[in-house]
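Recall from the previous lesson that a structure prediction takes nothing but the amino acid sequence as input. Here we apply that procedure to UDP-N-acetylenolpyruvoylglucosamine reductase from Haemophilus paraphrohaemolyticus HK411. The sequence below is the only information supplied.
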Amino acid sequence: MLKCPKFSNRLNIMQSLTPFHTFHLPTKASEIIEYTNVEQLLTAWQTATNANQPVLLLGQGSNVLFTDDFHGVVLVNKMQGIEQHEDADFYYLHVQGGQNWHELVKTALSLGIYGLENLALIPGVAGSAPIQNIGAYGVEFANVCDFVDVVHLPTGEHSQLSKEACRFGYRDSIFKHEYKDEYAIIAVGLKLPKAWAPVLNYGSLAQFEPETVTAQQVFEEVCAVRSSKLPNPDEFGNAGSFFKNPVIDAVTFQQIQTAYPHIPNYPQADGTVKLAAGWLIDQCGLKGFQVGGAAVHAQQALVLINKENATGMDIVNLAKAVRQQVRDKFDVELHPEVRFMGKNGEIDSELITR
Ligand code: FAD
Ligand code: EPU
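The prediction returns the following tokens.
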């Protein structure tokens, strides 16, 4: 048992992880500690590491799948605070990592600071947003990022990464690579132009006139569309899109398009083409398909849900079956977006869903 008397919010040994992730699976962790400042984070990380216990950093658990109980210490980001300043052209927000993302979007809107409205209703905390470069309705975190503050856990050294240094890509960043293991994100800096330009190129947002639309209208439309398509994790546990949308080369795309002329496709600047994984899964007739207690969501085939008392392995086996059917029908490989957590830490989702 770890001795951390400083933490009044320290929770019980082998505590349920069910409320700490949005799949709401019946998994447990040896210990769960909520931290509200960097000192608590560093102390807890160093104590666990000295005791040879694995450590897992967590925000709101909306992009993770626990395949097993976690035999280690889970550190939950509860660092709060938003600071604001401005110059002639921009508003700047310095947001602590544990701040809820959707609440931040609403706060910015209420302050007349626009540019986050397309990213409304994305679960999770601000400190997790850079990790997979959250994106929706034509906007990505990269578009609003100024910098990311990190701490190196073994030394306690702070540093600030510019937006360029974060190497953002589609559902990707340096935080999934070089900065994956020993760094924690503690805050993010956002830079939002005072001259707001609405982003209206995705789906039903195109109905609005750029000259007259308000950020509030965009916010409401995004919330309405999302609520109609995506299951509420409190009703059916899920982690949003389970797979990334696959990006394929132009020649392969043309072959698929010849066979499926109506295939949704999004040409990329480098000549590759992004496909809609939800459409591919849907075309395999998999909406509602169930393995154990896990199912493909009936409205959005890209979302796998905890339908009835699923285990982590039910979700893994469902993901495997979905991948196989898409491979068989289209010869396209799907790759999980969700991060898989095993007994001792992250495990390679590629290896267990093939
Ligand atoms: P967590 O799931 O807690 O953590 C994610 C990863 O980051 C884990 O590997 C974790 O170990 C690591 N991590 C956590 N905190 C830190 C830290 N401080 N430092 C370093 N590493 C850390 N995503 C989109 O991009 N667009 C969407 O439209 C979208 N819609 C969603 C809809 C639903 C219903 C759900 C459930 C999810 C959706 N997601 C979407 C996925 C998810 O919301 C995002 O990935 C979000 O940023 C995850 O935040 P989190 O705080 O829950 O992260
Ligand atoms: N589609 C189907 N059947 C389905 C689902 C989708 O035919 O069951 C078709 C749609 O009709 C549309 C296309 O596939 O033509 C794309 O669907 P949608 O607009 O719903 O978006 P998506 O590609 O499924 C992506 C992101 C979401 C993000 C939305 C909106 C990924 C992996 N997912 O979903 O992000 O909210 O666009 O921008 O990029 C997440 O990452 O967790 C997530 C929810």
